[in-house]
Amino acid sequence: MRDFMLFVEQRDRFAVGLFRQFRIEETPSRVLIITPNIEYKRWVLEYIKSRLQDYGKEILVKSHDEVSKNDFEDGLLEKYTFENFVVGRSNEVVYRICKEVASNPGATFSPVFIYGGVGLGKSHLLHATGNAAKRRGFVSLYMSANDFSEAVIRSIREGKLEEFHARFKKVELLLIDDVQFLSGKERTQVELFRVFETMHARDKQIVFVSDRHPKDIKDVSERLLSRFASGVIIEIGLDEETRLFIIRHKLSQFGLEPTEELVRYVADNTGYNVREIEGFIKTLKTTGITSLPKSIHKLGEEIIKLIARNFNLKPEDLKKKTKERRIINARQLAMYFCKTLLGMTHSEISGLFGGNDHTFALYSIRSVEEKRKKDRRYELMILTLEKSLRKHLSL
Ligand code: ADP
Ligand code: MG
């Protein structure tokens, strides 16, 4: 690379100044010159290219928006696009910001920090943003925080940390998913901070995604958290109307007719999680069963409603990520009753409460069982609640 620039300088001392503004991609057989716009491209083709022929490699010139694909492993999944993302009240602001970011990375909002519960389309939007920006010629890179961490560790082990950082110098849009997984990973945080600072100084775009607000992320350095919070912070949710849109859309996608009855059936048997909705529809498709006598999920939601009311909370509070004791207590009880009264599995219960693996329910329920053994008043409360739930749910 340095040799190529030297070569250019030998041919034309004036040109090298401009060439520094171009992106130069060199492989053993060719040099790709990417100019910021078509005018520069013409200029290179007309005045300089012929004088670079004897560099010994093929010389290609493209303008920025002709480069439609990244030339390194960019982690982007093509199946996630803006076109196949269903937009409704609870995700349209995030959607619009992502579209804006994809058209003008670094220009308006940077960094963007998106947070929200599992299965609400955060990763989908991140890939969609990267794919759209990439189509417009912006070099985009998607990494989960875990990918990033593994890459850091590998680079350190192989003594290639500088090369690791060099990679980000080309990147114009960096998409980091699931940053809550940075918790406790100190070295990773140090390197991410460095990446952030260099990209930020170059006015490049970063989008972070997390399952929770920066203030609820534990064991991440203050300086990194403050960077997360230095741009736009925005929550993605899922309201009932959008959920129904999505169900209709997914049913059609799977070749099932979205009749009102079928939409209702899916809605009653799934929670506020699009991944779960997709899973449920897939099962419908493969088993051909499109109605069941009783819907466990609906009863689960009833339990949540009744327990929430009992503790003066809103039903959605019980699905929040929080450290608030009162909420945790209510949630644990609601989970416990989903198990004992409805016979739901730990995974189903975790899903219902917005968790992503069965241990969430397992630990919560276990803690109720233990407290119940030790605390007589708590035991009585459970018996009373159980009686009233049975009555309300006609169990
Ligand atoms: P998250 O990262 O928030 O946990 P994902 O982005 O992985 O969730 O979404 C889970 C699944 O649901 C994916 O298959 C995704 O395509 C789909 N999905 C989520 N939200 C939407 C939406 N608004 N429209 C269409 N599909 C969606
Ligand atoms: Mg995700």
DSSP E strands, number: 8
Instruction: Describe the sheet with the most strands.
Output: 5 strands, parallel
Q: What separation lies between the terminal Cα atoms?
A: 74 Å
Average pLDDT, to the nearest integer?
A: 91
Order of helices and strands: HHEEHEHEHEHHEHEHEHHHHHHHH
Low-pLDDT sequence parts: none
- Quaternary organisation: single chain
Q: How large is the count of helical segments?
A: 17
Share of residues in strands: 5-15%
- The helicity comes to 40-55%
Rounded Rg: 27 Å
Description:
The protein is an alpha/beta fold and 395 residues long. 55% of the residues lie in helices and 10% in strands. It is built from 17 helices and eight strands. It has helices at residues 2-11, 13-19, 38-52, 92-103, 122-135, 145-157, 161-170, 186-201, 222-228, 240-253, 260-269, 274-287, 296-310, 325-342, 346-352, 359-374, 376-393, and strands at 23-26, 30-35, 58-63, 112-115, 140-144, 173-177, 205-210, 232-235. The chain has a five-stranded parallel beta sheet with strand order 5-6-7-4-8, with helices on both faces. The chain has a three-stranded mixed beta sheet with strand order 1-2-3, covered by helices on one side. Bound molecules: adenosine-5'-diphosphate (ADP) and magnesium ion. Adenosine-5'-diphosphate is lined by residues 80, 85-86, 91, 118-124, 246, 274-275, 278.
